Every structure is written in structure tokens, then in C-alpha cells.
């Protein structure tokens, strides 16, 4: 994996992207300054009594970027290398993602600096409940609605929801999305990001006049997002030829079976020694020949160091911020289209929005209805971005950012500034 120190931080990348589209759009400077800043950043301490009786104090954050279009929305990440700058970038990106998808939310992100893999289930529950308690003053059904992200899942969302409900004295399912279906979660939410990416791949293939069936796909990070992409693509007759986890990857040009991958990973916790496949590092996996490359792990994976070695015909960003600015330029020059994160991986937040709406109505939709509505919004955004990119001769990222930033800027303008 590329070293963090060699490249711009995700935050620098996010700011540079905003600055350059603002210039291109001739955005008024006062609006630009508002968009560059944050509504609120909360740092909290999270003391946890560990199973061995010792107390450890962790640091947690909740970053709220902009709520001009609706309540803040964004995931909660547990990671040992989490920084406030990462969260600022991710929160800002959520503002653009919600805006582009046309869902009435603003951007937020939160998390705790910790390695949850070393925690017992009870420790994880105590950590989650204490973090929820600490951020409670600034979250709420109509204020800020957390969701899962890296290393958090529906169980963690259930604990957040329970903590908030206990504190309020009544059941409040709408406080989080991505929770289990039996406590107000939405059908289709678990796989929504992956399914949305597959709709995006389908659109991109159509536009390239390529047949979807039989395409070769490389997926970096076979977690929530990556494995859902692999599952749906295999159902559609595509071939996943390489996958990875943080402990490295595997490659077989003839294709890897999704079911066998999941079975093996569940048993072994990694893909090491997976039968009939060659071992590859996460870095070399990105350079394999394929039709579609889906980086679905972490930010800053495609950099100026490896962008000229990428052999994919198209890159569809499953992760948030996997491509650096320098890499974007190199790929643009090499005519390798990059379908940006704010467009490609919006499926999760779109179905989170559906979950929030269903919770508010206390009326739940069947999975087909959720997926059909998701497809509709994903296709609408894709067409909008593609049309602008053609009209103005821009790459897809710039076109997507221009549409997203404009909607937020318009909301700020029409609401005005208090006082
Ligand atoms: P996850 O934790 O379920 O999966 C991440 C995968 O990446 C795992 O296979 C992990 O082993 C691997 N990984 C972790 N660190 C790595 C590294 N340094 N190098 C290579 N692989 C590594 O997380 P996820 O929910 O699938 O999220 C993946 C990405 O997608 C993140 O960038 C996240 O912000 C983004 N995303 C997630 C959702 C969602 O709904 N879960 C929605 C939008 C965007």
C-alpha cells in the first residue's frame, strides 16, 4: 500500500477538488468560503473499561460539514489510523454525494481511533455506547443520522439506536441507518452500495459499447462494498479475477467463485493460500490487466506512483477517495475513465435515505421496490453527470462535482446568511 506521507492527505485532495471546481464554475467567493469550512467539529474522549479490568481512553470525533440541504448524514468509522483530516474529507464528500444523488441530506462523518479487531464483543458494545453518549448532543433524527462505515456494521448501529432510545425514553429507529431489519432497517441496505456500483458499471459499459457479460473485474478490498459488487457481477455473468483484503490478494485470470471466496474468508480471515490462485500484493493487484478496476478498500490507493501502470479500461470508485489528484490527471491523459466515488458509491446513502423515510412513515417497502428506486436514482445521476461531461468536455469527476456543488451553493444562496 502507498505510504500516507508520500501523498496528499485525503483532506488536501478534497479541498483542491472543491477549489478547482469553484473556480471553473465562477462560484461567488463568499459561498466558496462557506463550503471550505465546517459547521461543527466535535472531539470526544471515550473511556472504556476493558475485559481485563483496565480502563482505556479512546478519541472519537463527529464532523458536520454542511446542512444547507437537510440534516447531516454520514458513517462512523473505527480505525487505528483514523485522523480528523480524513474525517473532514469524508464529511465534505458526503455533502457532495447527497447533493448529487438528490437526497435531502448534508455531509457528516465520525469515528473512533481504535483497532476494533482486538476488541471482544462486550468491549465493542461499551465503546459504541460511550461514543454515542458523547456525541448525543449533536445527533438526532432531524439533526445528524450516523450509518456504518469501515469496521462498523448493523450490530453497532443497533447499539447506537438503543443507546439513543434509552436516553430519550422511547424507541427512535430513525436515529441511524444501516441497522438490522427487525429494528427498522431497510431491506436491501446491506448490499446497496455494491448494487449501486454494479448499476454504475452497467451504465459505463453501455457508454463504452462493451458487453457486460464476461468482463474481467479486479476488486481491491472484498469487504461490505467489494464483496457485494463481486456477488452481483457474478450473478450477471462477469468474471472477478482478483480480490484482496488488508492482508493481501489473490489472482486467477480464469475467474474466482464469489461463494468460495466468502466461505474461505469467513473460515480463515484472509485470502492467503486460497486454492488455484496466485498471491498478489494490494499494490500489484491494482496493476493487473482487466476491464474494470473497483478500488473498494481505503483512500489514496491509486497515486502518481502507480497510475501509469494501471491496465484497466475503466475505474469505478467503490471506496471513498481512492484516487489522488495527480493520479486522476495521469489517468485522464491516458484516457482511462474514472467514475468518481460521489457518483459510483452513492447507493449506500440513497438506501439510507429510503430507510430514514420508511422509519418516519413506520411503513416498510419490499426489497424489489427498494432496489428499483435505487436503480432509478443511480441511473438519473449517471445520465446527468455523463451529459454534463460530454457537453463541457470534462472528466466525470469534475462534472459530478460541478452538479453537486451547484445544488449546495444554490441552497445556501436562497436560504441566505443569518443574521
Ligand atoms: P469493510 O471494512 O467492510 O471492507 C474494507 C475491505 O478493505 C476489507 O476487505 C479490508 O480487509 C480491506 N482493507 C482494509 N484496509 C486495507 C488496505 N490498507 N489495503 C487493502 N485492503 C484493505 O469496509 P466497506 O464498508 O466495504 O468500505 C470500503 C470503502 O467503501 C471505504 O472507503 C468506505 O468509506 C467506502 N464506502 C462504504 C459504504 C458502505 O455502505 N459500506 C458506502 C460508501 C462508501
Structure description:
Residues 186-416 form the Glutamate/phenylalanine/leucine/valine/L-tryptophan dehydrogenase C-terminal domain. Keywords: Oxidoreductase. This is Glutamate dehydrogenase. With 419 residues, this protein is an alpha/beta fold. The protein has 2 domains: 38-183, Leucine Dehydrogenase, chain A, domain 1 (Rossmann fold, 3-Layer(aba) Sandwich); 192-344, NAD(P)-binding Rossmann-like Domain (Rossmann fold). The protein is 45% helix and 17% strand. It contains 14 helices and 12 strands. The chain has helices spanning 10-25, 29-36, 84-101, 121-135, 154-168, 192-207, 224-235, 258-268, 282-285, 325-333, 341-344, 347-361, 367-392, 396-415; strands spanning 40-49, 55-66, 72-79, 106-113, 144-148, 216-220, 239-245, 248-251, 278-280, 292-295, 314-316, 338-339. A 7-stranded mixed β-sheet has the order 9-8-7-6-10-11-12. Strand 11 (314-316), helix 10 and strand 12 form a beta-alpha-beta unit. Helix 6 crosses helix 13 (367-392). The protein is globular and about 55 Å long. Residues 1-6 have low confidence and may be disordered. It binds nicotinamide-adenine-dinucleotide.
CATH class of the largest domain: Alpha Beta
Small molecules held by this entry: nicotinamide-adenine-dinucleotide
CATH homologous superfamily caption of the largest domain: NAD(P)-binding Rossmann-like Domain
Question: Rough shape?
Answer: globular
The assigned CATH architecture of the largest domain is 3-Layer(aba) Sandwich
Order of adjacent strands in the largest pleated sheet: 9-8-7-6-10-11-12
How many DSSP H or I helices? 14
- Structure class: alpha/beta
Sheet-strand content, in percent, reads: 15-25%
Overall average residue pLDDT = 96
Helical amount: 40-55%
Number of strands: 12
Return Rg in Å.
21 Å
Query: What would the CATH topology of the largest domain be?
Result: Rossmann fold
The domain tally reads 2
Helices and strands, in order, run as HHEEEHEHEHHEHEEHEHEEHEHHHH
Family: Belongs to the Glu/Leu/Phe/Val dehydrogenases family.
Domain Glutamate/phenylalanine/leucine/valine/L-tryptophan dehydrogenase C-terminal: 186-416
Organism: Candidatus Brocadia sinica JPN1
Keywords: Oxidoreductase
Amino acid at each position: 500500500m502507498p505510504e500516507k506521507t508520500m501523498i496528499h492527505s485525503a483532506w488536501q485532495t478534497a479541498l483542491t477538488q472543491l477549489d478547482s471546481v469553484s473556480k471553473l464554475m465562477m462560484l461567488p467567493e463568499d459561498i466558496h468560503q462557506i463550503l471550505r469550512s465546517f459547521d461543527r467539529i466535535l472531539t470526544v474522549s471515550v473511556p472504556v473499561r476493558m475485559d481485563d479490568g483496565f480502563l482505556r481512553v479512546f478519541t472519537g470525533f463527529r464532523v458536520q460539514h454542511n446542512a444547507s440541504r437537510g440534516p447531516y448524514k454520514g458513517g462512523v468509522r473505527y480505525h487505528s489510523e483514523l485522523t480528523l483530516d480524513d474525517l473532514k474529507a469524508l464529511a465534505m464528500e458526503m455533502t457532495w454525494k447527497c447533493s448529487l444523488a438528490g437526497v435531502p441530506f448534508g455531509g457528516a462523518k465520525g469515528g473512533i481511533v481504535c483497532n476494533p479487531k482486538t476488541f471482544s464483543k462486550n468491549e465493542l458494545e461499551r465503546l459504541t455506547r460511550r461514543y454515542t453518549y458523547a456525541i448525543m448532543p449533536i445527533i438526532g433524527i432531524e439533526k445528524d443520522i450516523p450509518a456504518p462505515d469501515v469496521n462498523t456494521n448493523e450490530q453497532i448501529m443497533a447499539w447506537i439506536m438503543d443507546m439513543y432510545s434509552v436516553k430519550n425514553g422511547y424507541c427512535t429507529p430513525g436515529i441511524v441507518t444501516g441497522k438490522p431489519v427487525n429494528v427498522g432497517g431497510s431491506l436491501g441496505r446491506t448490499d446497496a452500495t455494491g448494487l449501486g456500483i454494479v448499476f454504475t458499471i452497467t451504465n459505463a459499459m453501455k457508454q463504452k459499447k462493451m458487453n457486460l457479460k464476461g468482463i474481467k473485474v479486479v476488486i481491491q478490498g472484498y469487504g461490505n462494498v467489494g464483496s457485494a459488487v463481486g456477488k452481483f457481477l457474478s450473478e450477471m455473468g462477469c468474471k472477478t479475477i482478483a480480490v484482496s483484503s488488508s492482508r493481501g490478494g489473490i489472482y486467477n485470470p480464469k475467474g474466482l467463485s464469489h461463494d468460495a471466496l466468502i466461505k474461505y474468508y469467513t473460515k480463515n480471515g484472509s485470502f492467503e493460500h486460497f486454492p488455484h490462485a496466485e498471491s498478489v500484493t494490494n499494490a500489484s493487484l491494482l496493476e493487473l490487466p482487466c476491464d474494470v478496476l473497483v478500488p473498494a478498500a481505503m483512500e489514496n490507493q491509486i497515486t502518481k506512483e502507480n497510475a501509469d501502470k494501471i491496465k484497466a479500461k475503466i475505474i469505478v470508485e467503490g471506496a471513498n477517495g481512492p484516487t489522488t489528484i495527480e493520479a486522476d490527471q495521469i489517468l485522464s491523459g491516458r484516457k482511462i475513465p474514472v467514475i468518481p466515488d460521489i457518483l459510483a458509491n452513492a447507493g449506500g446513502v440513497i438506501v439510507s435515505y429510503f430507510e430514514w423515510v420508511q422509519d418516519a412513515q413506520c411503513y416498510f417497502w419490499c426489497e424489489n421496490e427498494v432496489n428499483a428506486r435505487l436503480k432509478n436514482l443511480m441511473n438519473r445521476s449517471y445520465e446527468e453527470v455523463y451529459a454534463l461531461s460530454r457537453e463541457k468536455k470534462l472528466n466525470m469527476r469534475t462534472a459530478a462535482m460541478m452538479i453537486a456543488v451547484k445544488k449546495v451553493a444554490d441552497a445556501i444562496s436562497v436560504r441566505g446568511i443569518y443574521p
